[in-house]
Amino acid sequence: xxxxxxxxxxxxxxxxxxxxxxxxxxxxxxxxxxxxxxxxxxxxxxxxxxxxxxxxxxxxxxxxxxxxxxxxxxxxxxxxxxxxxxxxxxxxxxxxxxxxxxxxxxxxxxxxxxxxxxxxxxxxxxxxxxxxxxxxxxxxxxxxxxxxxxxxxxxxxxxxxxxxxxxxxxxxxxxxxxxxxxxxxxxxxxxxxxxxxxxxxxxxxxxxxx
Length: 210
Fold this sequence. Notes:
Helix content is 27%, strand content 36%. The protein is of the alpha+beta class.
């Protein structure tokens, strides 16, 4: 997306503009009954071997600093992000034919942010974070169930469940954001914000052929 950014027909946009625009899209998705997981997004990463990998995760927070998700730090995506701290995100909302594509560098969230989000999770999800050795071979699903039961018993029904050191979050700091609107005859509208670093930073907003 960055490489295909338009060179003409652009205008300067305030730094907050694409984030506010994404907020409007997300609010519309949350109001759409057909969309069960409005925060679901695909994330593409590339490892040391140069091969891309794609999976779905859930957006947990966004603001003008970027887009946040959480994972086991031993997972494939986390390993690949350590090797190559860049990622691409895509949100697709079929009921109203909108995609939002985001490309940018990736940075870890702070311990305080990770602690706060982890504490907000349902108890079962907190236990599950301890039990899952994410992205490693699992001999049988029964073993995972057994590990959950072990950790469940360890923490007790009302005990504190601290965040594991191997579980945290990443923030995708965008360098480009594209809003894609489906149109008849596949003459889709594509608006691309490309970051212009500086003080203050700003965006160049242009358009792409569909």
